[in-house]
Design a protein that fits this description.
With 394 residues, the chain is an alpha/beta fold. It has 14 helices and twelve strands. The protein is 39% helix and 14% strand. The chain has a seven-stranded mixed beta sheet with strand order 1-7-6-5-4-2-3, with helices on both faces. Strands 8-9-12-11-10 form a five-stranded mixed beta sheet. The protein binds pyridoxal-5'-phosphate (PLP).
């Protein structure tokens, strides 16, 4: 019986999914750094453009290396279609804009990655799309906000920076009751620990810049959905607006996928251990990690995720303490990225969440003493020592 890649375990999908070897039968995925493609004959070009014959026509539409990345990620996610994009933000932008027109309504959790918040708060309203923000942990607020002309809801869970948890299945049920599509930004959970499509989401978006590369090299993004939704809402939009992923970046990302499972499981284990060490330290007012019992979203996190993830949030009480902590770290870098092999810590109010007006910050959990720690692949013992020493000095 022939193997069906859909039946493979995650580890096998990540190594073997989507491979399309050239006539040279290379072992590693080939990098097709080309803008375009040629045809045997004018009739051949005619057939290719008509879609009567499979093949590529232009790298803004698709490219063999990009397709290997798309097919591998789609297999992992259990999605019919993956559309690779130049960045995570290109993905969030297309995923939302593709679903709406003037007069429609969008609901989103208020604690979002800064640029996602800008799209919902500033960009969509310019084109006549009404938007409502809710406390994404409160199902009654979702219920009250979703209305007959709601066409899309955007969920980020766990959210940035304080790892709020939203019940994806419950919100999907409310959204589907009015025919709205559910878009989940799954960056923090990664495809390894949360599968939103299985929980009722219609569209999943990634910044591949984060864990999928995981080694700080390239930007990338992806939209994953069904054939039907892609056909109706995204195919033409991304074809004609051009947020295409570079084949070079796709090649880096397809190789990144090979080690995704190994990397994020190790990062997850280290993060869980570090969260406990941080939680016990007397300088720490609060530690937030989805798989700790004291996290407000613990029950839902346990229901919909298989790991707490690679990011920890903590509150050290004041900006002064947070800065002292960051400056005392010797191994962990001060950097605003996340999901990287290198551990990184940042102070959200002065970096990633700077553009959020000060009076709105408390409702997003963005406090002056807040620090977000993205846990990498260094030894857990070295990281514990570094973090405890820095906390002692905070
Ligand atoms: C980083 C990030 C994005 C944006 O991704 P880019 O690749 O930087 O454009 C979107 N959503 C979340 C949750 C992110 O962490």
């Amino acid at each position: 019986m022939a193997e069906d890649p859909k039946d493979w375990d995650v580890a096998t999908k990540l190594i073997r999914g989507g491979i399309a070897r050239s006539q040279f039968m290379e072992t590693a995925e080939a990098l097709y750094l080309t803008q375009g493609f040629t045809y045997d004959s004018a009739e051949g070009a005619d057939r290719r453009f008509a879609g009567d014959e499979p093949g590529f026509v232009y790298s803004r539409f698709n490219n063999p290396t990009v397709k290997m990345f798309e097919d591998r990620l789609a297999l992992l996610e259990g999605a019919e279609v993956c559309r690779a994009q130049a960045t995570g933000m290109a993905s969030v932008h297309a995923a939302l804009i593709g679903l709406v027109k003037a007069g429609d309504h969008v609901v989103a959790g208020r604690a979002l990655f800064g640029s996602c918040r800008w799209i919902v708060a500033e960009l969509l309203p310019r084109f006549g799309v009404e938007t409502t923000f809710v406390d994404a942990t409160n199902l009654a607020e979702w219920e009250a906000a979703i209305r007959p002309n709601t066409k899309a809801v955007l969920i980020e869970t766990p959210s940035n920076p304080v790892l709020e948890i939203t019940d994806i299945a419950a919100v999907a049920e409310m959204a589907h009751a009015v025919g709205a599509k559910v878009v989940v930004d799954n960056v923090f959970a990664t495809p390894i620990f949360q599968q939103p499509l299985k929980l009722g989401a219609d569209v999943v978006v990634y910044s591949a810049t984060k864990h999928i590369d995981g080694q700080g090299r390239v930007l990338g993004g992806a939209i994953l959905t069904s054939e039907a939704i892609n056909e109706e809402f995204y195919r033409d939009y991304v074809r004609h607006t051009g947020p295409a992923l570079s084949p070079f970046n796709a090649w880096v990302l397809v190789k990144g996928l090979e080690t995704l499972d190994l990397r994020v499981r190790r990062q997850n284990d280290t993060a869980a251990a570090l969260a406990d060490v941080i939680g016990e330290h007397k300088k720490v007012r609060e530690v937030l990690y989805p798989f700790r019992k004291d996290h407000p979203g613990y029950e839902i996190a346990k229901k919909q995720m298989t790991g707490g993830g690679t990011v920890i949030a903590m509150d050290l009480g004041s900006r002064e303490a947070a800065f002292k902590f960051l400056n005392a770290l010797e191994i962990v870098d001060i950097s605003n990225n996340l999901g990287d092999a290198k551990s990184m810590a940042t102070h959200p109010p002065t970096t990633t969440h700077r553009s959020v007006p000060e009076e709105q910050r408390p409702s997003l959990g963005v406090t002056e003493g807040g620090v977000r720690l993205s846990v990498g692949l260094e030894s857990v013992e070295d990281l514990k020592r570094d973090v405890i020493r820095a906390l002692d000095q905070a």
